[in-house]
Amino acid sequence: MDAHSGSNRGHSQSFPLRPIYNTTTTTSNSSALPADPVPVSNPASNPTPSASQAAQDTNVAASSLASTEAPAGVSPSQSDTSHDYYHTDPDYEANINPAVDSRGPNMSKAPLLIRSSPGFGTGSYGAAPVHPETNDSDSETDTDGGPPNPPSARISTDSYYSRRRHSLDVGHSTAFRASTSSLDRRRKSQSEQIGGSTVVGGLEGRFSISEIPLIDDLAADAESDGSCVGDEEGSDDANTSSDQDPPDNSPYAQVRASVSPTDNTTLSINTPRMWTLSTLFSILGSSTNLFFSLRYPSVSITPVIALLLVHPLGLLWDYLLKRSDDPPEEFVDGVRINRQTSPGSSTQGGAPQMERSRAGRLRLWLAQGSWNEKEHSCVYVSSNVSFGFAFATDIIIEQTQFYKQEVGIVYQLLLTLSTQILGYAFAGVARRFLVRPAGMIWPGTLMSAAMFTTLHKEENKPANGWTISRWKFFFITWVSGFLFYFLPGLLMPALSYFNVVTWFAPDNVVVANLFGVVSGLGLFPLTFDWAQIAYIGSPLLTPFWAAMNVIGGLVIVMWIIAPIAYYSNVFYSSYMPILSASVFDNTGKIYDVSKILTPDFLFDREAYSNYSRVFLPITYVLSYGLQFAGLASLLTHTTCWHGKDIYVQWKRSLKEAEEENRPAYQPLQSEAGGTPSNGEHHGIAMSSSTFDNIMSHEDVHNRLMRRYKDAPITWYLLTFVTMIAIGIFLVEYYPIHLPWYGLLLALGICAVLFIPIGIVMAVTNQHSSIYLICQLICGVVFPGRPVANMVFVTYGYISSAQGIKFAADLKLGHYMKIPPRLLFLVQMAATIVSSVTQILVLNWMFRNVPGICTPQAINGFTCPIARVHFNGSILWGVVGPAEFFGPTAMYRGLVWCFVIGAVAPIPLWLYGRNRRTSIVRKINLPVLFGSLSWIPPATGLNFSVWAVVCYIFNYLLKNRARAWWAKYTMTLSAALDSGLAFGIVIVFFGFIYPGWMDGFSWWGTDVYRKGCDWQACSYNTVPNGSHFGPDTW
Questions:
Q1: Which end of the chain, N or C, is less packed with Cβ atoms under 10 Å?
Q2: pLDDT at 370 > cutoff 90
Q3: Average of pLDDT values for 589-610?
Q4: CA-to-CA distance for 59 and 66, rounded, in angstroms?
């Protein structure tokens, strides 16, 4: 709708601003912008500005371009305070406007933890504020200084060839981003025209991110002393009064630093280029990650790799298909609008439409629009929902490879699709709680938003003397990592399993226990394989404070408590390897679950009594205890540090949910005279990265998203009903032994906990998993049914985990102003494509990888993750929780870990809540406990060497060469991960799978296998014909 035609109807926020019209005549292509801001008065004291003062709303011009004036109603001093993230005092900005701060109750001064635990697999990237930046203008240049053209969203071909990325000097305060041709790279400035349906607010692309530190470190500094990391060169410029905020911009510094408060409605989104690249990366990412998930050591291809790699492909697409005589295009909500032309008539700068050949028309269809940040966002979202391997594939692996149960392709497809898609319903229904409120910031999405800004402009600032561009640095590192992997991955595997201490005493059990890297604790942290270093997540992307929490837990629990308990034979652990992903019987052999199952895959109590009870290695026991403590400590930690904030946000989200008549998009002002529509301005105070009485129910991003049609709730409900029907069919038709009401119980657990978990994730970036809860509940309600337990956990846990991931993507689309209906289609298509792809790849591997999921599998395809889940199904599904935690159970003591985890954060909070500089505030027990849940299948080596690399880069290098660290660290991580992934694929398919390396053997391929580390020797041995443990159970 026209932004001014109904600006007074149903508008909940107003401000004394009015639309901008062209008031300056230009005679050249230079931008008609004032060099200095116009001094104005405080809006609180002068609600109606004078007629000479121009104002801003918060949208980028739609089609026609016009010059703008500096925003009015905000004083230069206020502009400075809108960037409080440059100040070291966390309460600095909360005291700027006491009138605003005094509204509402005082909130907790506790730091906002925007971190992620490697154990939860939610590593995040981040950004800090740097230079103000200007956006592209995709419209024709107006040189006559006349009034704005009629509303449209037209992109001319000339505009495209002049659009690419030229940032003007930040000293010229309100300069917009000009353009550069993708063919001849010509640079020229353009004046800005304002369409009737959009107005300009702030600077286009005001948050230029030239160097991207981690968002986690932004919060880490805030937690201790409120300081944040930014671009030191650009901090002064970014604080100048030329960089004005809209009055309803986000109150959170990290959001303002990473997300522009504007929306360019002229950009193309729904194009063949976007769909092709989305589908391509969905297929490549999902298949690659599934392939690697069955291997140890492995690597995970993260969506940030797609974010980086897809950008040159998008530019290449435009370079190959765009022509200078292409007709102009018009886009509405990212979709091209076809304009009818009379036969023989020519379009602007183009040949007559009727004269184009079929190939020419196909080229025009493929070349529509131009590669931009919104298309880039959609490709990234599709990668984000598809790159993680489907949890249902683990269920299929366990059924076929471990339980030897035959399952057909139809069952596999239906199980995978239903479990992957059910999360959409929960995310869609919870949008008003988890996506729309300004307080739901979703810190993990801010890296992506900042990277889109970085990649869609051309800038290469020196960093500690390094002038190489990120792209060249990425390419050199990628090639180097790929070539180097041939050493540890093919020619000399001893460099990967670098158990060098055991080489001098290969048969010494104690040496193998302590210094081994396969079944030992890895006390010698050295390896030359990036797959081993980054197995639990890239250390380059983990804040140093988090790594110290993890390594502290490793030292205390795994390097001190575990050896003492092991050599003391606690829980008969010395008759088993000190570290293993398997469970054992009372003879020290791997537990044969087939001996205690009936032909219908149900628990056989008599066979269990005649065979053996289940015994766990000591590190496995401690890992379960840590998971219990981590789950309880997460709830307590969140309640202590963020309870008041979450409660306030919950109440405000409920209040928003009660608003039945939500208005459509409105500018901040009425068209006539700039008079507020309701006579009141609901200001939003700016905040540092801590919460200080600021959790607004709406901000500029939510207001801008109202111009797009929302995805109807019926879409999500229909999806939910359809997937429920498929799930009920699966559990009733196939021999799963889970009744239909069991499926509903699993989804009920997810439904009850989804919004609380989502709020915690959106506020703190900590994901509380319900995996263990689902296992325990199913084990109690449906004992003795292992397959039922696995399926129950899949529907309950994955619906929650996938829903949280989808909600995060909805927030990213919210930040990037992607139409919700189109975003729904992008997510759904990527999920379907990736699910089908993974099932096909999985079945191919079953048939073509010799010994898959066995210790004898070639190239390490032992299915380590599926093996751990299989062990869980034995513990909770076959034997049941009562056998482990009952009154007479051996492992009953682990129940106390819940109590320890629940109580431990309280004294830390009581001591550190008023001591902002205390190191105690850096201790995060959910991270300390939860991250070690990777053991098993991870080993001590994976943690120790990971922590060393993190210390080098995220402490030493960050403090001594901050500019280099900020510019290249993320690129280095992405290059090493993707180079390793490509190396693994080439080594396997090019050399190992064809059999070319069958006869290749020398000292470097055999030395690490000779000894107790590889053979997983136990400290004590069981005499033949005897057993350890009790005689009856």
A1: N
A2: yes
A3: 86
A4: 13
